[in-house]
Amino acid sequence: MNRHLGNILAGAALAATLALGAAAPAVAASSTDSLRGPDGDGSVTISGELKQWHKVTLSLAGPYAHEQDEAPNPFTDYRFTVLFTHESGAPTYAVPGYFAADGHAAETSAVSGNVWRAHFAPDRTGTWHFRVSFVAGPMAAVEPAVGEPLTPFDGATGSFTIAPTDKTGRDFRGKGRLRYVGGHYLQFAGTGEFFLKAGPDAPETFFAYADFDGTERGRKQAPRPGEAEPTQTLKTWEPHVRDWRPGDPTWQGDKGKGIIGALNYLAAKGVNSFSFLTYNAGGDGDNVWPFTARDQKLHYDCSKLDQWAIVMDHAQKLGLHLHFKLQENELDDHRAGHARKPKVIPEALDGGALGPERKLYFREIIARFGYELALNWNLGEENTQSYEEQRDMAAYIRLLDPYGHHIVIHTFPDQQEEVYPRLLGTQSALTGASAQNHWSVAHQRTLRWLRASEQAGRPWVVANDEQNPAGFGVPPDPGYAGFSGLAEPENEGRAYTLHDIRKYTLWGNLMAGGGGVEYYFGYKLPQNDLVCEDLRSRDRSWDFCRIALDFFRDNAIPFWHMRNRDDLVGNPENTNARYCFAKENDLYLVYLPEGGTCDLDLSAADGTFSVRWFNPREGGPRRKGSVSRVRGGATVSLGTPPADP
Fold first, then answer.
1. Angle at 568 between CA 567 and CA 571, to 5 degrees
2. Which residues, 6+ apart, have CB-to-CB distance to 399 below 8 Å?
3. Which positions ≥6 away from 74 have C-beta within 8 Å?
4. CB of 251 within 8 A of CB of 311?
5. Are 576 and 504 in contact (CB under 8 A)?
6. The pLDDT of residue 219
7. Angle 387-400/356-369 helices, nearest 10 degrees?
8. 3-class DSSP state for residue 548?
9. Which residue stretches of 111-214 are H helix?
10. Residue 24: is its pLDDT beyond 80?
11. What pLDDT is recorded for position 32?
């Protein structure tokens, strides 16, 4: 009987058109557009690569509208949904659609037109049938009982045929949709692979980009305690223009090269996730919103959002998971800051409640981007809404999202014990936590919520997505912009380096059984959370992330069948002395943050196990140490590692 024991040492486009032919009804004229165009004729066009897991777009020639129309408002007063059903009868997806101006708004910056769209990512090959539901009425988009079918648009039907995917490698279109499957890890529906993530959590203002239409500099404001200095500039992502490659997407000529290059850089480094806010008006950056203007919460910017979609589509082709942070603390409700002091915050959607503004926001985001294969919806950064508001948001997203994407929430470290327990199990639709904590307790806090969620009956996927202290987070590489390499916080723990982040945050989360990490950049250090435009500032940390992800993949580690067993290496208190992650009687991973050796309790195991060492700083093959084999049935010594493991 031969088993494997790995001991890890640290520190040492096709298209089809279907025309219905009937004339469209007249739509009331609006003062926003004195020369209004004609309504569409109700015809439907299917476009895109008609392949499994690819973006398939249904375009409807619908009622003419302008982004600023009020009567009817194209965002609130129409409910456009497409029902896609596989020829076998299952599955069926009810996909929300949206107003798309002229259908080319990313290039034309159009604000009006008669094109309405729904995006679909089919999970099966063969023939799919569709049926359009198009309902009109005051606030019909957010009130399901409101509205009447609008002819000739309502009732349009047709079909199209989907071929197998031809994508491979990192491209998610070769892997399928990333799903919560009832355990501590997400799984790709196509290949069955389980997912571990690593990448940047900063800058939160990733989309505060000068090349996006309608994107404005933040309003001048004083810095908040524990936050970065607000900036009145937009990103150009100039340091990453050199990473753009011929054939990569742009819009309106050469726009987009910087942000596309930034994604190329991350993919080339081997990481697989990044995060971004989609709404931060009134927050630290005050420069990202999906609306036509900062305070126009019921009117959406068609061209800006089409440009966002270009970036997200490219990210998915590169194998980069999308972490949607739907709002931030400063604008989530009428409660100010960490202390939740009552205060009217004009930017807060419905003051924090699930009202028409918030419902419309979720509908527009899901309609425009929900087809993306690998993503999670984060209810809010450092969220302080009430339990009822958090529960209602999660339930509404679950209702609207046809694909059932992963839903998480992020809150202050010292409020986790108040916020998370009331959301566990069937108390909410959440399937995970986006945890913030001091870098040195990632292992312990990950274990806390893995165990609590399992006991509640719905195991969560727990990621470590923000590292305190806030002023330092994950530091830049030594030598970058003159940085010494040593983060030296005052009164917030000991000084530390990127190697401490590697040992206790990255591997601390993974060895607990967590879903991975995203790195926050502290506001006192170069390229911080608000102003960062050079992701090379943490180049070496991305190497460490890649090495960890490659280790699990290249060695076929069945982490989804494993659990934390620190007790087997004499660490029942789960300190940072040493970690153990095990599929018992089969595979044991041991991580020694400070090197050395240790004993492993194999008294409940039988058979013979091989012992190998791995270098988490440089990667490479597993190597033999002073002990190459051990037998189960007793506590055994793992020996000493190679001279340079």
1. 40
2. none
3. 63, 65, 66, 67, 99
4. no
5. yes
6. 80
7. 40
8. helix
9. none
10. no
11. 54
For 116-157, how does the pLDDT look when each residue is reduced to its tens digit (9 = 90+)? 999 999 999 999 999 999 999 999 999 999 999 999 999 999
Region for residue 105 given its phi and psi (left: phi exceeds 0; alpha: psi -120 to 50; beta: otherwise): alpha
Expressed in angstroms, the distance from the first to the final Cα of the chain is 27
Q: At residue 164, what is the residue type?
A: P
How far CA 32 is from CA of 70, 112, 298, 305, in Å, comes to 9, 10, 15, 20
Give the integer Cα–Cα distance in Å for 406 and 85. Answer: 23
Q: Model confidence at 35, in pLDDT bands (50, 70, 90)? A: confident
What CATH fold (topology level) applies to the domain 16-162? Answer: Immunoglobulin-like (2.60.40)
Locate the domains of the chain by residue range. 16-162, 194-554, 562-637
pLDDT attached to residue 150? 98
> Strand 321-325 to strand 375-378: parallel, antiparallel, or no bridges (unpaired)?
parallel
Q: How far is CA 351 from CA 75, 346, 487, in A?
A: 20, 8, 38
Residues 6+ apart with CB under 8 A from 291: 297, 299, 300, 301
**Tokens at residue 260, please?**
């596309």
Phi/psi at 331 (nearest 5 deg)?
Answer: -135, 20
Find out whether the peptide bond into 469 is cis, omega within 30 degrees of 0. yes
Kindly report the pTM of this predicted structure.
Answer: 0.94
Count of Cβ atoms closer than 10 Å to residue 368 Cβ: 24
Burial grade of 481 (CB within 10 A; 0-12, 13-18, 19 or more): exposed
CA 146 to chain centre: 33
Token pair listed for 542: 């991305």
According to CATH, the superfamily of the domain at 194-554 is Glycosidases (3.20.20.80)
Token pair 């604008």 is found at 331
Q: What local confidence, expressed as pLDDT, does residue 262 receive?
A: 99
